[in-house]
Amino acid sequence: MKKILMIGTGGTIASEMTEAGLAPGMAGADFLRYVPAVRRLCQVDPIQVCNIDSTDMTPNHWLAIARAVEEHYDDYDGFVICHGTDTMAYTAAALSYLIQGSPKPIVLTGSQKPIHMEITDSKTNLLDSFTVACDGRLPGVTVVFGGRIIPGTRARKTYSKSFGAFSSINHPILGVVQEGKVTPYILPEGAPRPAFFHRLDQAVSLVKLVPGQSPDYLAFALEHSHGVLVESFGVGGVPAGRAGGFYPLIQQAAARGKTVVFTTQVQNEGSDLGVYQVGHGLKTDLGVLEAHDMTLEAAYAKLMWALAHSQDREELARRFYTPVARDILLGPDMA
């Protein structure tokens, strides 16, 4: 019988009703009793890293979860991480960079309704996740939700209330779980041993462009960060291109060693800065990085990981553009 470590972090799946609304209260050991089929499937040992609403999740929690996996890695066949849905995609992306090449499954799941409710998706999601962890054919970090198996670097919450809350962005799902059976569509390869990383540069921020926005917002972010993601319009660019206030601001920041990454507000197909004049000079003259088809969540986590391991511009670009866990398919020299 397979041995699976269940790591509890809180979230809706573990929530109980309070006078102020739902709040995490149950530990993983408590809500396993709602899904007795799990213990018939495998031997489960539950541990608790934290018990919080995922709105309160931070990079320090990501490091703690990765550390828990590393400390117990040799003792288990797979891992199931129970997590709130609101920031699960960020955690899945971060773990994909902190734990690279795992030959064992590391599955994140959660629910839109608490496990104690009569109508809930939690029991199905939990059983599906243990099924994937025991199956073993889909190694590395994945999100299992609503019957879909999604790469950790491609998951995004696209519905705020529906049970099928997560989608795979710019990449096919890896497979499905139906009636207790895993049907893989894609079989990723794991390395013989995982590579664990222990640092993230948390001085990373995001600026979302809106029409008429002052460059002052970007100036503030650049002043207080080592790296800034700019969530731009369409395939990418800044208002007025070289003639606008954003361009010299980014130029000055680059001269001070700051890293700027452009991504897009459009969910599908990614960025391409070279298409329009408003974006062309950013890449050719200022050397900004570009997320291409990466999700915002993956680009954010990868920039934190890359900055933590090198501040050298060329090495940083190499790390950012080197594919990890299917996170980027259309970057430089890949199209």
Please provide a written account of the structure.
- Helix 8 (277-284) links the parallel strand 17 (259-264) and strand 18 (289-290).
- The mean pLDDT is 92.
- Helix 9 (296-309) packs antiparallel against helix 10 (313-321).
- The strands form 5 sheets. This protein has an 8-stranded mixed sheet with strand order 4-1-5-7-8-9-12-13, with helices on both faces.
- The protein has helices at residues 28-31, 37-41, 59-72, 88-98, 122-135, 216-223, 246-255, 277-284, 296-309, 313-321; strands at residues 3-10, 15-18, 21-24, 43-52, 78-82, 99-100, 105-109, 140-145, 148-151, 155-157, 166-168, 175-178, 181-184, 195-196, 204-208, 227-232, 259-264, 289-290.
- The chain is of the alpha/beta class.
| Oligomerization category of the chains in this entry | single chain
Low-confidence stretches: none
* N-to-C CA distance: 44 Å
Structural class by secondary-structure content:
alpha/beta
Order of strands across the biggest sheet? 4-1-5-7-8-9-12-13
Count of strand segments: 18
Q: Portion of residues in helices? A: 25-40%
Q: How many DSSP H or I helices?
A: 10
Q: What's the SSE pattern?
A: EEEHHEHEHEEHEEEEEEEEHEHEHEHH
Proportion of beta-strand residues: 15-25%
Shape: elongated
Largest sheet features = 8 strands, mixed
Rounded to an integer in angstroms, the radius of gyration calculated over CA atoms is 20 Å
- On the 0-100 scale, what is the average pLDDT? 92
